[in-house]
Amino acid sequence: MRTLKYVLKRLLFLVITFFIILTITFCLVKTLQSEVPLGPQGETEMARRKALGWDKPVLVQYGIYLRNLFTKFDLGTSLKVAYMQPVGDVILSRMPPTILVNVLSILLGLPLGIALGIFAALKKNTWIDHVVSVIIVVFISVPSFVLAFFLQYFLSFKLGWFPLVMASKAEAGGLFTWKMVYSLMLPIMASAFYEIAYFARTVRAELTEALTSDYMLLARTKGLTQSKAVIHHALKNAMVPILPVVIGTFLSVMGGSMVLERIFAIPGVGDLTLKSLAGPDYDLFVGTAMFYTLIGLLAGILTDLSYGFLDPRIKMGER
Amino acid sequence: MAENNYANLSMDKFRFVQQNEKLHDKALKTKPIGYFKDAWIRFRKNKASVAAAIVLGIILLYAILVPFFSVYKLGVASDMVYKKMNPRLYIGDVAIFDGAKTMSLNDKYLINLVGIGISAENAYDKGAEAWEIGMESDHNPVLHMGEDKIVKEAGKEVTKRDGRVSTYDIIGFRYLHLQQAEVDKILAWEKESGYQVIYPMVDVDNDYCIDPSDANQWYRTKRGWPCDENNHQMTLDEVKEKGLTDNYLRDSEGNVVYVKKQQSMCNVRVLYCNYYRYTQGHEPSFVFGSDGGGYDIATRMAYGLRTSFVLSFGVAVVCFLFGAFFGAIEGYYGGWVDMLLERLVDVLWRMPLYIIVVLFQMHLVNTGKASVLGGLLMAFCVTGWIGTASLVRTQFYRFKNQEYILAARTLGAKDLRLMFRHIFPNAIGTIITSSVFVIPGIIMSESTFSYLGIVNLNSRNSVSLGTMMADGKEFLAEYPHILLIPAAVIALMMIAFNLFGNGLRDALNPSLRGADD
After folding, report:
1. Three-class DSSP category at B28
2. Which of residues 494-513 of B touch A (CB under 8 A)?
3. pLDDT digits over B414-423, tens only?
4. Nearest by CB to A293, which of B350, B359, B516?
5. Which residues on chain B are in Cβ contact (under 8 Å) with A254?
6. Calpha distance A202→A307 (Å, rounded)
7. pLDDT at site B56
8. Residues of B in Cβ contact (< 8 Å) with A278
9. pLDDT band at residue A254, thresholds of 50, 70 and 90?
10. Domains of chain B: total
11. Interface of A with B in 176-205 (CB under 8 A)
């Protein structure tokens, strides 16, 4: 009962936060409108804006926006990037490439990161551990787009192993083909390196703690071999705090990385956001901004709640 | 039983331990070790962090000092000739970077390149010695040459060799169209400095000249190959034996002509690196090469680093002060104050950074109310302090109910005194560490946003590393240094900041040692 109350409370705060951010963004964006060209073009433009209701006061517009959002799930209309198309549809159509890249990068990064972390924790304070530590520091610190440049230069220009940018759908014969995955190898690697380092760091810290705990001593005392004790006791316990991290990461990758999408010419949500900024395409900008906000909020709440559900020692809703 | 009569002790059984002297605590014989000294001793033991601190110090000094000593200035237009040069740095005669690129040279191209050296040394009439003089010349673009190789090309066997060709000297000669007064000034400067700028003019109107705009083609050619005075095509070996036959413009007495008059203007052929010396006052040489606009990367990078440092230190200071204050209030008062402020933090924390930056750009920068840097600084400050505040809040929760605080309160200390005099010193380590960790985050965000073009920090007097990388992106295949040098510096700086921050955290908060290592 207390858990349910806590979850509901968190959800309520999520909704309130979301609408505060929406209000701020919407009002600040709507008080700016691009200049109207002169002459007949300007008249058409004004007529179009009037039809979209852009001549009304900002708060009235916000009311209409909210009404459309709740009744028709309508996020407004794109004017520059995808002419006269509903913002919701435009964002949805850009999601598959983003999700593809990020899911693949997690599929690459998660097992490698966990393996590295386990390896480093088991060989604590040997040269293997030190090498893993160096890898972790380097990949955690270096921004993924800087890594992307080095990958592009060395793996694509120098060695010619991978294509420079993402292949088009026509070239690869669809989004979910091996050819497409191959052409996406560089962006996948660029974002996977960070995930490898991040997971390795978390696993290493958790497992080190588990290995030195009392129950491991007990397990050994009652006659388990070291490997059995590690697999059945230490690893099991060490994985509990990892899972929420994985859940949070999985959700936040929906947003993807704007800069990687720009570098590798991936037509995803990040790329769309940049285009809406360059336009400027105000409705689309508000739409993408809310998309990112929602993903951040959901990732946060899911991470927090999963800690509570997975670890019975944490009692939710307690101070 | 007289000894045990404690009820009535007589006065004279008591005596003062001391009556005339005051008792003091004895001063400690050893030197006291303060908090920061203690932290410094711990920090020193961490080799990686010390190394990182040194690297950061070098980068900081580089950013501060290089613009003062560099001959290249920001906002001064480049002369657009020395574009995309490779890094060149000689210490004495030792080349750290040689400013050259590896090229595959066939006979014809090799003659053309060494020809620059021959002409620059005025060895056009030296015959057999000319080739040697040309190879020895400072202006010879071919720095090293590999063994001859026989390569099949389009069905024919061609001799080629790999050579390190200087990207600077390959510019060689240029034709210029100058006024007589300017030519006189150059001639006066030549005498003064000892550098020859103006070289003999080539007869561009005869059949020996194939490209009238290429001032490096000073010798007689026939179908692209050099030829001798008898109009006989020469091979590479013949050129080495006999030298090249010049195609210079000569007057009626057979002397070479330096200046070709054309109405009021003069056509001259200059050795460009010496002409550059004349116009700019220094030789063309770029330690980290030059970018696509001919600007010195080393200088621009120093200015870019300055931008990054000014921005990130500014944000760190604001976050240090505001985060500490906010976290102290939250943690000390708790209850509904904490609750309310935490909700505010929640909203700000969940707002994607790029939205804040864009809104500040649109409302303050584009309308001219703030500079680009100022707008960015404000945008980063909006959310930057949250990490610091939440750490301080935790520290305050930990300490506010301890006995010594209760004692101080009992003695009548006011809230502010309790907060900043008694609890705050316990949180100072945390605050410093979290403020330091703000810096790399800001540098990374700034370079990302300027790379993406969301903010434009490029102007007459500022540059950003992100913009440098965006500019260098199109040359990545052929001139990787334009992009990869700034990228490598950012990578190095990020690694150093993280190592330094980890060391600082362990030193300042020994209890948090290896918290998320």
Report:
1. coil
2. 494-495, 497-499
3. 888 888 888 8
4. B350
5. none
6. 14
7. 92
8. 453
9. low
10. 1
11. 201, 205
Q: How far apart are CA B87 and CA B296, in angstroms?
A: 10
Instruction: State whether residue B337 sits within 8 Å of chain A by CB.
Output: no
B173 strand-pairing partners: B271
DSSP state letters, B302-333: HHHHHHHHHHHHHHHHHHHHHHHHHHHHHHHH
- DSSP code at position B256: B
Q: Do B495 and A142 touch (CB under 8 A)?
A: yes
Q: Does any domain span residue B443?
A: yes
Distance in Å, alpha carbon of A318 to nearest chain B alpha carbon = 14
Are B350 and A297 an interchain contact pair (Cβ–Cβ within 8 Å)? yes
CA nearest A191: which of A113, A89, A132, A271?
A: A113
pTM, entire model: 0.84
Listed by number, the residues of chain A in 246-285 with a beta carbon closer than 8 Å to a beta carbon of chain B are: 258-259, 262-263, 273-274, 277-278, 285
Distance between terminal CA atoms of chain B? Answer: 72
C-alpha pair distances (Å), A315 with each of A9, A247, A291, A305, B106: 15, 19, 31, 10, 77
The alpha-carbon gap from B80 to the nearest alpha carbon of chain A, in Å, equals 26
Write the residue in B343, B354, B494 that is nearest to A141 by C-beta: B494
Mean pLDDT across chain B: 82
Q: How sure is the predictor about A183, in pLDDT bands with cuts at 50, 70 and 90? A: confident
pLDDT of residue B515: 45
| Cβ <8 Å between A32 and B351 | no
Domain containing B342 equals 50-67+296-512
DSSP B456: -
Q: Whose CA is closest to B319, among B378, B384, B263?
A: B384
What are the chain B neighbours of A272 within 8 Å (beta carbons)?
none
Q: Position of tokens 């588990």?
A: A210
Q: How far apart are alpha carbons B396 and B418 in whole angstroms?
A: 11
CB-CB under 8 Å, A152 with B476:
yes
Structure tokens at A192: 């996977």
Element (H, E) at B266: strand B265-271
A 146-175 near B (Cβ less than 8 A): 146-147, 149-150, 152-153, 157
Instruction: Evaluate whether B291 touches B216 at the Cβ level (below 8 Å).
Output: no
Helix residue ranges per DSSP H, B411-473:
415-417, 424-452, 465-472
Inter-chain CB proximity B355 and A289 less than 8 Å: yes
Nearest to B350 among A17, A201, A259 (CB): A17
Give yes or no for residue B234 having a pLDDT over 90. Answer: no
Residues B381, A51 contacting (CB under 8 angstroms)? no
Mean pLDDT on B117-130: 76
Contact criterion met (CB below 8 Å) for B391 and B426: no
- Average per-residue pLDDT in chain A? 80
Instruction: Tell me the pLDDT tens digit for each residue of B365-405.
Output: 777 777 888 888 888 888 888 888 888 888 888 888 888 88
Token readout for B156 is 């024919």
Q: Looking at this predicted complex, what is its ipTM?
A: 0.85
Q: Which of B192, B166, B134 is nearest to B285 (CA)?
A: B166
Q: How confident is the model at residue A36 (pLDDT cuts 50, 70, 90)?
A: low
Residue B249 located in a structural domain: no
Q: Does residue B81 belong to any structural domain of this protein?
A: no
**Chain A neighbors of B514, CB-CB under 8 A:** 205
d(C-alpha A184, C-alpha A105), whole Å: 10
Contacts across the A-B interface (CB distance below 8 Å): 99
The domain that holds B448 is classified in CATH as 1.10.3720.10
Judge whether B269 lies within some domain.
Answer: no
Q: Which residues of chain B are within 8 Å of residue A9 when distances are taken between CB atoms? A: none
- Give the span between the Cα atoms of B404 and B422, in whole angstroms: 9
Q: At a CB cut-off of 8 Å and minimum separation 6, what does A1 contact?
A: none
Per CB-CB distance under 8 Å, the chain B contacts of A140 are 498
